[in-house]
Design goal:
This protein is of the alpha+beta class and 334 residues long. It has a single domain, classed as Beta-lactamase (3-Layer(aba) Sandwich). It contains nine helices and 14 strands. The strands form four sheets. The chain has a seven-stranded antiparallel sheet, with helices on both faces. A three-stranded antiparallel sheet has the order 5-9-6. A two-stranded antiparallel ribbon has the order 3-4. Helix 2 packs parallel to helix 5 (154-168), helix 2 (64-76) packs across helix 6 (172-181) and helix 4 (129-137) packs across helix 5. The longest helix has 15 residues, at 154-168.
């Protein structure tokens, strides 16, 4: 790419490359190669460590495509069916779940209540996926009949992580490592559990507060893994992106199913939802994407498989305005 184009991208990321500010990592992939990859700003404000291609950011909901992939791996192995109902895995679940299937959870059409809305007052210890199960067991009904509507659900993906553990006999982090990260040589990616794992080259999360940048790395929901607990880097996500063109993890037919909008609507105009991915179009070209947002991180991955073109933006700041940046990068490299 030209120096003029690089300067244009630097200008887009100017806000992320300020002294003493949390930063970002940006990668553009075309034809199987990174045509632009650059990091900006700081991964750790206290230690003044700069972001790099191997800096691991918390992916937040960009975790969901990995959780969905883990489910599909088990489906490919015939250890699970997407039409299985929740009582098969959670016998202690109340009757309201009896018609909810794995497919409903994958596509946010289950009607399972949002666990965030039912966290008991005064809770300060981080919740786990199993705590989410406990909270959902206290509820009496779904928000709508399963399969009738789309409603984005972190609860559903926490349950999927527990289903993976139930079926595989492994912890969710161990299953991801064995079946996704290791086969793809994603050597630094991890579903992080405090006290049990570490995050190499870790970026810490921040929010823009009244007195400058405030440390907001974890919240009471940060330890829930299935909906947002993976840390990864530009370098590793390049390997993930490229693997999705192959049969390294699952068959092409099952991949195509994952990239099909099983819910024709979503919470974003013009997009439906597949298995862990938003599905839409850009200039009559299929657009597969997901975003992530949490207390200290904002992330996004956009894929255009027909053009072998992808854009990845990772930041360690809350509510970063990255969507306009992504859109401009798409326009620039289209």
């Amino acid at each position: 790419m030209s120096q003029a184009d690089e300067k244009r991208i630097d200008a887009l990321l100017h806000d992320f490359d300020q002294t003493g500010a949390p930063g970002a990592g940006v990668m553009v992939i075309k034809g199987g190669k990174p045509v632009f990859a650059k990091a900006y700003g700081l991964a750790d404000l206290e230690k003044k460590i700069r972001c790099a291609a191997n800096t691991n950011f918390r992916l937040a909901s960009v975790t969901k495509p990995f959780t969905a992939m883990a489910v599909l791996i088990l489906a490919e192995q015939a250890k699970i069916s997407l039409e299985d109902h929740l009582p098969k895995f959670f016998t202690e679940f109340p009757p309201y779940c009896k018609t909810i299937t794995i497919r409903h959870l994958l596509t946010h059409t289950s009607g399972v209540p949002d666990y965030e809305q039912h966290i008991p007052r005064g809770i300060t210890i981080p919740l786990s996926d199993r705590d989410v199960l406990f909270i959902l067991r206290q509820q009496n009904e779904t928000d709508f009949p399963p399969g009738s509507h789309f409603h984005y659900s972190n609860s559903g993906y926490a349950l999927l992580a527990l289903v993976i553990e139930n079926v595989s006999g492994k912890t969710f982090p161990a299953f991801l490592k064995q079946m996704i990260f290791d086969p793809l040589d994603m050597t630094n990616s991890v579903a992080y559990v405090e006290g049990l794992s570490s995050v190499p080259h870790r970026a810490y999360g921040y929010a823009d507060g009244k007195n400058g940048w405030e440390f907001t790395d974890q919240s009471v929901t940060s330890a829930v893994l299935g909906d947002g607990g993976i840390y990864s880097s530009l370098a590793d996500l390049f390997k993930w992106d490229q693997a999705l063109f192959t049969e390294k993890l699952i068959s092409r037919d099952l991949l195509a199913d994952a990239f099909t909008p099983h819910s024709s609507r979503s919470d974003f105009k013009g997009s439906g939802y597949g298995f862990g991915w938003y599905i839409g179009k850009f200039r009559d070209t299929k657009r597969i994407w997901h975003y992530g947002s949490t207390c200290g991180f904002s992330t996004r991955i956009e894929r255009f498989p027909e053009k072998q073109f992808s854009v990845i933006v990772l930041t360690n700041r809350y509510n970063a305005k990255i969507s306009p940046i992504v859109e401009k990068l798409i326009e620039l490299f289209w």
